[in-house]
Each structure stands twice: as C-alpha cells, then as structure tokens.
Amino acid sequence: MKKVLFAVSLMLLSVFANASSNSNPGFIYGQVPTAAQWNSYFTSKLDYNAGAQDTIPYWDASGNILNALVSGDCTASANVFTCSATNATNITTTNDLATNATYYPVFQTATGGTNPLKTDSTGLTYNPSTGVFFAEVFSGAGTSLTGTAASLTVGTATNATSATSATSVAGGTQWGVLYQSASGTTASTAAGTTSYVLTSNATSAPTWQVGVPSSTALNVIGYTAGVASGGSAVDIWTGTGNVVQMTGTGTTTGFAAAPAAGAQRQIITTGACLFTASSNLIIEGIPSGTTITLAANATVHVVAITTTQFKMTYSLSGTFTATGTGFTANPTATASYKVENGWCKLTIPQNVLTGTSNAVTFTITGLPASIVPTSTKFLALTTATNNGTIIEVAVFFLSGVMTLGTGLGNGAWTASGTKLLAGSEFTYSLN
User: Fold this and answer.
1) Is 336 exposed, middle or buried (0-12, 13-18, 19+ CB in 10 A)?
2) pLDDT category, 11, cuts 50, 70, 90?
3) Structural domain count, the chain
4) φ/ψ (deg, to 5) at 3
5) pTM assigned to the model
6) Arithmetic mean of pLDDT, 281-304
7) What percent of the residues of the chain are helix, what percent strand, and what percent coil, each to the nearest 5?
8) Which residues have CB under 8 Å from 395's CB, separation 6+?
9) Most buried of 208, 251, 269, 365 (most Cβ within 10 A)?
C-alpha cells in the first residue's frame, strides 16, 4: 500500500512541477488533493479560464499557456487553426496595374459601423490594364475633372435637366442643329447653308429654307465696297448687305453663284465698267452678245433667277459738254442724258450750239460712250438755221458720231454765215 501511495505522489509531483512555472497550488509533499482542491487550482490559473466564452488556450514563446479570444469561424487542418473574421479593420491588398480583366469595386450600405461589402456586376467596374472605370451614371459638377479634353465622350443621357456648359456632343453633324426626332431621342440636321433659316412644319424633321441671314443677305440693308468688275464670276453676294460698290472698268460676263434663287443686289459703279449680255446674264433691253458701257454712279439691279442665271436692269444719268464742230469757233453746251435698259434720252439746250460756219458739216462731239449706239442710227428731224435760213435737219449717229444733215438726209451745210441748232430732245435705242 505504501508503494502505491508513493507512486501516486511522484506522479503528482511531476505534474505540479510542469505547472509550477505559472503558479504554486500550495500542496504538501505527499498530499493527495481532493476534487475540490484540484478544480480550484486549475480554475484560478491564467492559462485556463473556464468562464471566458469563445477562447482557446495557446503556448507563448516562454512556454506559458495563455487564452485568446476567437472571432469568426475557425477550422483545423493538419494541426493548424484557420479563422475567418466577420469584421476586419484591415485587409491585405496587392497593387495590380496590368491585369486585363474586369474587377468590381466594393461598397457598403451605411457610412460607418460593421456592414456587409457589396459589388455591382453591371453598374460599377474597373479594368487595371486599360484604366477604364465604368459607372452607369455620373452625378456631380465635374468642375475638378482633369485630362478630359481629348478623351471625354458624352454618351446618351436619358434625362438631362440642365447643363452649365457642354463643349461637345457625340454623334452630331458638323454645323448641324440638334433637335428631338422622337420623345427622348435627339438627332441632328444637315449642315446649314449660307442665308438659310431652319423651319419646321411640326410634323417632320426641321429643314433649311431661304431666309434672311446677316452677312450674305438676300435683301438686308448694308453696303459692301470694293468689288472689282470684270470676269465671269464676279462675287456680289459675299458682303454685309444688298448694296455693292463695283470698281474698275472690266467687262463682266457673269456673277458668282447666288446663295439662293430670288437673291438680289443693287450695284453702284465707280467708273465706266462694261457688261455683256448672255443667256445667263440677261440684260433687259440688250440683245445677247452685246456689251454695254456704264459710267460712274450708274445703278444696276441684279435678281437671281436661279443660283447661276441672273436678270439685270440698269440706269444711269449725267451731263457732259457737247461741242459743235464745223464752226470758226466751236460752240459748247451742257447736255444731259438718262439711260435705262438700253434706251437713252438726250437733251441739248436750245440755241446754244451756234456760231459762224466754216464747213459743210455739223457734228456734235463729247458724248460719253454709255450713250453712243452700237450701230448707225437715225434719231429724229429737228429745226436748225443754215446761213440765216430756218431748215429741217436730220439727226443720226454715223460711225458713233452724232451728225446733223440738212434736209431728210445727210445734206451739206453752207460753209459761211450763221449755223445754229435750235435744240431738242432725242430718245433712241442704244442697240
């Protein structure tokens, strides 16, 4: 019996010796502890706390047995505990710049506290390789966005209530105007045309129609100076209004294309410019192929029948010094004229062209080219005095010279005595 008790005492001594590094139970050598003593000892040890929930014991580097609170679900495999945390304040991340794959940024349902993490597989994605961050809708001012000049694309907006500024809209036509082709659908018109305005009949897409623009106006009051005459495409349409100053003495055979049929221009000439009538430049009163000569301050009215065919009317008036020839001292008179669409009205004052005759001819010179007919033309019979005798004389143009002949033809004058043109008005065609 003594041998048995001695063996038990040695065993307990060995156990207590292993535990003595943490605490001393206060047992006496050879003492057999009771159940109460045994439980009291182990209950009070730091490395065994029967009252702590969700803890497991472990050994530290010094061989002490300590407690650890377990958070989450733990599994054991090959003597290794692995625990997953329900709530974690830090996680391990990896810098990924190259993977060409779709990733899903995480978000939670509240601004703080412990909440489940969520993703959106279709509305919020990121690709590390391309750097593309996709979100279905962006809401915000965008005033701090940078690097967007070349790469920002404005897509389709289902609803847009206001925009402080918008620099571009994808899908529009250059120089076109946006409009709603259907409810919730935006479309663009074709590029506009100079001098056209946008019109709509409220049942179909708006269209460009001839209107009243500002710079290349059809009939807007304004003045454009310095348009050179001469050529087949004189541009009288580009300017600030419907009145154009034409300079030079060139021959104009046509105009540049008009902005639209019905466009009009008023031209004021600064010199003796010329116009040649043709099928595309119809000059009222002038046959096709005939060239007319205008003078300074002549007015020309041009109407576009089509954009390439034009109807032209014109008028000019003025005075000149008419000189009688065939006298010892050639007399002069201030004559006046008015030309309108190929017809001229010439007025020579009465009893001014008079003097002593020294030739059998009587001509009048000094006429401007704009009132000289293009062919030989009889004007009228008028009254004159030949060496004191009142006679009837014929007035006509011969080789471009205004000639007076006695009688009904080109009769001779007396080369002495008084020669006088009583004066008259002459109306004649320039063709």
Assistant:
1) middle
2) very low
3) 5
4) -65, -35
5) 0.51
6) 95
7) 5, 35, 55
8) 378, 379, 380, 381, 382, 402, 403, 404, 424, 426
9) 269
Query: Using alpha carbons only, what angle is made at residue 142 by residues 137 and 145, rounded to the nearest 5 degrees?
Result: 110
Does a structural domain hold residue 129? yes
47 and 77 inside one domain: yes
- Model confidence pLDDT, tens digit, residues 358-414: 999 999 999 999 999 988 888 888 989 999 899 999 998 988 899 999 987 789 999
158 found inside a domain = no
Predicted local distance difference test score (pLDDT) of residue 158: 47
For 9, phi and psi rounded to 5 degrees? -65, -40
399 sits in the region (left: phi over 0; alpha: psi -120 to 50; else beta) called: left
For residue 326, what are its two tokens?
């065939």
Q: Using one digit for the tens of pLDDT, what is the confidence trace for 164-219?
A: 555 566 667 887 888 888 887 888 888 877 667 777 777 888 887 765 444 444 55
Boundary residue ending a domain (251, 282, 308) = 308
What's the CA gap between 48 and 65, in Å, rounded?
8
CB within 8 Å of 346: residues ≥ 6 apart: 335, 336, 337, 371, 425, 426, 427, 428
In the block, residue with structure tokens 């005075």:
319
Encoded amino acid at 177, one letter: V
Question: What domain range is 303 assigned to?
Answer: 223-308
Whether residue 101 sits in one domain with residue 60: no
- Please check whether residue 217 lies inside any domain of the structure: no
pLDDT score at 361: 95
- Alpha-carbon dihedral sign for residues 42, 44, 47, 49: positive
pLDDT at residue number 14: 45
Same domain flag for 417 and 330 = yes
Assigned domain for 202 exists? yes
Neighbour tally for 270: CB within 10 Å = 17
Quote the pLDDT of residue 217.
45
Q: Which of these three, 53, 84, 115, is where a domain ends?
A: 84
